[in-house]
Amino acid sequence: MPMWLRVPVLATSETALDNDRAARLSRECMTNLFFTTQRPHNVGEILGGGHFGRGYDQYVMDIGTSDCSEKGWRLASEMIVEAVRLARYPTMPSRLTCSYAYPSEQIARSTMNGSPMRLYLYEVELTDPSKPCHTVSRDLMSAVNRMPRDIPFAPHVRLVADQYWSSKGGTYPEVITESPLRVVRHLP
């Protein structure tokens, strides 16, 4: 395993979520959630997870573009975040295969402000509330927070990943879940 992917494993009592905590992770996501997207959906439509992770499969190494280098760093960062999850937070939903939503309409709308593209807003619900679900701090995953300048990259990303997986929502909370989402209604 490459050195940059190695994550020291904590003692078992620190890594494993007990049954009560696992139950709380699912209960915190029992209410309706909010979802933004670039394409329209129908009421009742099931939105499966993994769209974010599949996006990395579409990366093309095109050294003629300005974002080529950034894409590589973004992918490396996401792989480190996933390695930390697997080593220290294995019961948390993977960012690469989960569904994403927001815990309130207000937070979802705030993510739409200033977007250069048309976004649709939906109220959604979990199709399987028994699946793992957790509220995390979305702002920790911003490029500013996890793409360091002038400091070693991998140790910094591991630190940010630990903060992310142990967070409870932060300034910009988002919900990640292994449950697919069902569209309840479109919001204007």
Your description of this structure?
This protein has one domain: Alpha-Beta Barrel (ADP-ribosylation fold), CATH 3.20.170. Helix content is 36%, strand content 18%. It is built from 7 helices and 7 strands, in the order ααββααβαββααββ. α4 crosses α7. The longest helix is centred in the middle third of the chain and has 21 residues, at 68-88. The relative contact order is 0.25.
Provide a quick synopsis of the model.
By secondary structure, the protein is an alpha+beta fold.
List the helices and strands and how they pair.
Elements: H1 12-15, H2 19-27, E1 33-37, E2 46-47, H3 51-57, H4 68-88, E3 99-101, H5 105-112, E4 120-126, E5 133-137, H6 143-146, H7 153-166, E6 173-177, E7 181-187
Antiparallel strand pairs: 1-4, 2-7, 3-6, 4-7, 5-6
Helix pairs in contact: 4-7
**CATH class type:** Alpha Beta
Computed Rg? 17 Å
**Unreliable spans:** 9-26
Got a strand count? Answer: 7
Q: Could you describe the largest sheet, including whether it forms a barrel? A: 4 strands, antiparallel
The secondary-structure element order is: HHEEHHEHEEHHEE
Structural class: alpha+beta
Oligomer: single chain
Count of discrete alpha- or pi-helical segments spanning 4 or more residues:
7
Into which percentage range does the β-strand content fall?
A: 15-25%
The name of the CATH topology is ADP-ribosylation fold
CATH architecture: Alpha-Beta Barrel
